[in-house]
Amino acid sequence: MEFKGTPLKDKDIKEKKVFYVDWHVKANYAWDCGIALSYFFEGLKNGKIYGRSCPKCKRITLPPRMFCELCFHPTDKWVLLKDTGRINTFSVSYLNWDASRREKPQVPAVIEIDGASEGMGILHLIAHPEKIEWENLDEVLKYIKVGTKVKAVWKDEKEREGKITDIKYFIPIKEEK
Questions:
Q1: What pLDDT is recorded for position 25?
Q2: What is the dihedral of CA 119, 139, 176, 54, to 10 degrees?
Q3: What is the pTM of this model?
């Protein structure tokens, strides 16, 4: 297929052989989390985890939603959840967020929070229960498996900002019998 016209080259622009406009957008904006997440983040700032209950299918959603995505019914009330839960799934990572290598592993996990419906959880980090940082894979697997009970470790009240990072990390805890 042959296209009509003259292709531009970078040097045509650099040598100002063609007319062009170099425009940088100034896009000021404000972010709104909506009713459900705003209340959830305000709860985190106060050291509390909130979900929402669906009156039709009886699920308690986390993160909270203003409607149930299974039955499409509006959720009707806030539910204060515990700051404990169980590991639903986890990964042992030797990569940082920027894909650079780490010497010691980090353990991101999906945590099903106690009081929320099964399968409802949040993604967060799991720290070593005694020293925060993990030394190696064997040490991680000694403490962690799917179903391990964990508890949130919160930032100091004065440091909280209403973000998921108000929970510093979760640590494995022993089961109460």
A1: 85
A2: -10
A3: 0.78
